[in-house]
Write a structure and sequence with these properties.
The structure holds 2 protein chains of 2 kinds.
Chain A lengths: L29 H9 L3 H23 L2 H18 L10 H19 L32 H12 L3 H13 L3 H8 L3 H25 L1
Helix pairs in contact in A: 1-2, 2-3, 2-4, 3-4, 6-8, 7-8
Chain B lengths: L5 H8 L5 H13 L1 H21 L9 H15 L16 H19 L4 H33 L3 H23 L2 E6 L8 E7 L4 E7 L8 E9 L6 E6 L7 E5 L8 E10 L12 E4 L1
Antiparallel strand pairs in B: 1-2, 2-3, 3-6, 4-5, 4-7, 7-8
Classes of the chains: A mainly alpha, B alpha+beta.
């Protein structure tokens, strides 16, 4: 049985109502954060950044591969949060999901504007310390405890490579299914199938986490 | 996109929907619980995937401070424009009536085919034209009624009742995803302009009246200030007809999603990237 250890966030899944003592969630829930943001509490913005800034930056870096650009994007995302907290409904979308969506949109805009279609490599201006892609240190580790991260990592790793490839190109490179098909020289139907099956497995994965977690 | 299709959710999450399809999907999410739940689950799965594929990276240590400073600066820059849009227009009483008519017209139109964005935009334009006519009519009626009130108590009571009803109608308009803003001028009170803005799609229609006809070397330019964009966004250039009027669908040069201000300036032909002003008309939003 997977357990959550404080202060690991549980944004990834909707845990059922606890029937027995369960590990702690955040001291301040996302809803409390939102309430404080709506009240224009700057400390809450800092807390949101502390909670989600690093994984968000890591995802952005995977997309853009440029420290300066990613910091601009992340700053932009948190300012968007600052100014739009009153519009957020956590019953519809988790805070991290919302932040990722904004980050992706901003990043894809940049990719498309610069007509970039090649997976970005870390740029020369990335002068700050990074932890390169050791599989045991991914952005997931900033959000869940190590044991759970390893479990999820293993499960995701079991997806067929072609499914992972297609989803990665769509998520990180912002490519349409048609563009992926052309890039991989596959039929559009094949790409759609790969993405569909891959996402269905990922959905099952998080659902299993809910039922077993 | 009448019914929920899981493939649409997947295409939504992988940015494969066209702008129109995305708008329709967002509408579907508003009304369909199953669509929302499935999309949510798929989204979580996709996030897990993405997080496992992205190595941990460290942003600069001062990024947090920069974000907080930017938020504070953002607070400081949202200041009311002196004398703009704070005082009530002389036709402010008429506006809600016309707005309600506009809303009814708009809703009636869009109920026929809510899913067709092109039709929706057309309806928006037609609503603005309708609004223009109604506003002129109501302005005239209001002037006559105000004059008569001095000598007629019954008319005064009617005016009070109408004012109450106007307030109710205004609430209905506010509850919709349309908002109407008067732009006002500190330069010439005869300049009139208003915007019907769709908060969901971040688009709208501008109508101006009584603006001077410009020489051939000049254009009017609309600016849209978004809370998340440093500089005012170009909302398009335009000229007016011999009556000083025009209306057009606003297409901002950059996406906006948190509009704070509309303003109109006079610029060189073709418009400018950054305006030195002054604002001929403006309204906070």
């Amino acid at each position: 049985m997977t357990t959550l250890a404080y202060p690991s966030p549980t944004y990834l899944i909707d845990l059922p109502e606890p029937q027995a003592p369960r590990p702690l969630r955040f001291v301040n829930s996302d809803q409390q954060l939102i309430d404080q943001l709506v009240a224009r509490d700057h400390a809450a913005l800092g807390a949101a950044y502390d909670r989600y800034g690093k994984p968000l930056f890591s995802l952005c870096f995977k997309m853009l591969g440029n420290q300066r650009e990613c910091e601009e994007v992340v700053q932009d995302v948190f300012l968007a949060l600052w100014n739009n907290a009153h519009k957020l409904d956590l019953n519809r979308s988790k805070l991290f999901t919302w932040l990722v969506a904004i980050m992706r949109n901003r990043s894809i805009d940049r990719l498309r504007h610069q007509q970039r279609r090649i997976p970005p490599a870390p740029s020369a201006d990335h002068e700050h310390s990074t932890t390169e892609s050791a599989t045991d240190d991914t952005a997931l580790h900033a959000l869940v405890d190590k044991e759970r991260a390893v479990e999820l990592q293993t499960a995701v790793g079991a997806l067929p490579n072609e499914q992972k490839r297609a989803i990665e190109m769509a998520f990180f490179w912002g490519m349409t299914h048609q563009e992926i098909a052309e890039t991989l020289d596959e039929s559009l139907g094949t790409i759609k199938s790969r993405i569909r099956y891959g996402l269905q497995k990922l959905r099952s994965l998080v659902n299993e986490e809910v039922s077993h977690g | 996109m009448d019914k929920f299709n899981e493939d649409d959710a997947m295409r939504h999450l992988t940015s494969d929907l066209t702008a129109e399809e995305e708008a329709l999907f967002q509408e579907l999410l508003e009304s369909n619980d199953a669509a929302r739940e499935t999309t949510r689950e798929l989204s979580h799965g996709l996030e897990v995937f993405a997080l496992t594929q992205a190595p941990t990276m460290e942003p600069s240590s001062d990024l947090r401070t920069r974000i907080l400073d930017a938020a504070k600066a953002d607070d400081d820059t949202i200041v009311p424009m002196p004398g703009v849009a704070k005082r009530r227009s002389t036709w402010s009483l008429a506006l809600p009536w016309a707005a309600a008519a506009c809303l009814a017209f708009f809703v009636g139109k869009t109920q026929l085919d809510k899913r067709d964005l092109r039709i929706r935009n057309t309806a928006l334009r037609e609503a603005v034209s309708e609004l223009s006519i109604l506003r002129n009519q109501v302005t005239n009626l209001q002037g006559r009624l105000a004059n008569a009130t001095d000598s007629n108590g019954a008319l005064s009571e009617q005016l009070a009742a109408a004012t109450s009803e106007v307030a109710n109608l205004q609430e209905q308009v506010t509850a919709s995803d349309l908002r109407i803003r008067d732009l006002e001028s500190n330069i010439d009170n005869s300049y009139k302009a208003y915007i019907v803005w769709d908060d969901v799609r971040n688009t709208g229609v501008l109508r101006v009246e009584n603006l001077p006809v410009l020489d051939a070397a000049s254009d009017y330019q609309l600016w849209v200030k978004d809370a998340n964009v440093a500089n005012p966004v170009d909302g398009g250039v335009f000229i007016v007809n011999q009556d000083g009027a025009t209306e057009f669908q606003i297409t901002t040069k950059q996406p906006v999603d948190d509009v704070k201000l509309f303003a109109i300036t006079k610029e060189v032909k073709g418009g400018v990237a950054v305006s030195a002003g002054p604002f001929l008309l403006a309204a906070e939003y």
